[in-house]
Amino acid sequence: MLEANGLCCVRGDFTVFTDLGFSLPRGKALVLRGPNGSGKSTLIKAIAGLLPVRAGFLAWEGEAFTGDGDWIAENICYLAHKNALKPELTVRENIAFWARLHGVEDGIDGAMAALGIDHLGDQPARYLSSGQGRRTALARMVCHRGAIWLLDEPTVGLDQDSVQRLSAVMTSHLDRGGLIVTATHIDLGLARDRSIVLDLGQFSGKGAVADDWSLSEVWS
Ligand SMILES: Nc1ncnc2c1ncn2[C@@H]1O[C@H](COP(=O)(O)OP(=O)(O)OP(=O)(O)O)[C@@H](O)[C@H]1O
């Protein structure tokens, strides 16, 4: 269970959101919606430990986040707007590097097949198209053993087939007991009972609560 209670995040002198709360059980995705600038990336970065929280707290399995780097590396898989691939390494080498770092080394072939990039294994990352680069970053993510996936606009550059592959990969992660927080402007194709929508646009600066749970359900 990932929980946020009374969260307030500030960028510069701008309060992005205040009093934001949610409770996300394993097996579910929290889908962040809202217009540009409403705070989706800010919330994801705060969960990833990359931005300080001005007020409130985050908790995992009942324990408040401490910001410990080893814990974050082990439990949180963060995909930002940029793919962060090493351009001189091949697709396979990029994925293998990540898999060695995060502990799932036997999943490389399966991850490449799941994202439809098995034919690109020997291609240096600097020669990938935009969508191929994104698919490589997503395959790398599949090799992370962490339960918490943070995906900031994961579909950027993806064609329709790749979006379906991403949806399948996300569903598998949820089936394994993982959970996902993702910002997106498009429908990811997740089953309705697997996702909870949090619209930051309605609540930025005023407090935000997942729209299909009542307050008492969130905190009971
Ligand atoms: N370093 C910064 N200093 C000051 N304000 C910032 C900084 N970074 C972001 N902001 C502001 O914080 C607010 C939230 O930005 P954020 O990137 O979280 O929005 P978003 O919902 O992810 O937007 P988008 O849909 O465009 O990706 C915006 O108003 C933005 O201008």
Features of the shown structure:
four-stranded antiparallel sheet; alpha/beta; five-stranded parallel sheet; binds adenosine-5'-triphosphate; 8 helices; Rossmann fold; single chain; disordered C terminus; nucleotide-binding; ATP hydrolysis activity; 24% strand; 33% helix; 220 residues
CATH architecture type: 3-Layer(aba) Sandwich
Structural class: alpha/beta
Provide the residue-averaged pLDDT: 90
Order of helices and strands: EEEHEEHEHHHEHEEHH
Q: What kind of sheet is the major sheet? A: 5 strands, parallel
Record the strand order, biggest sheet: 6-7-8-3-9
- Counting structural domains, the number is 1
Please count the helical segments: 8
Low-confidence stretches: 211-220
Quaternary organisation of the protein chains: single chain
Small molecules (ligands, ions, cofactors) in the structure: adenosine-5'-triphosphate
Helix content: 25-40%
Content of β-strand: 15-25%
CATH 4th-level superfamily = P-loop containing nucleotide triphosphate hydrolases
What's the gyration radius in Å? 17 Å
Question: Would you state the CATH class?
Answer: Alpha Beta
Tertiary shape: globular
| CATH topology-level name | Rossmann fold
Q: In whole angstroms, how far apart are the ends?
A: 13 Å
Number of strands: 9
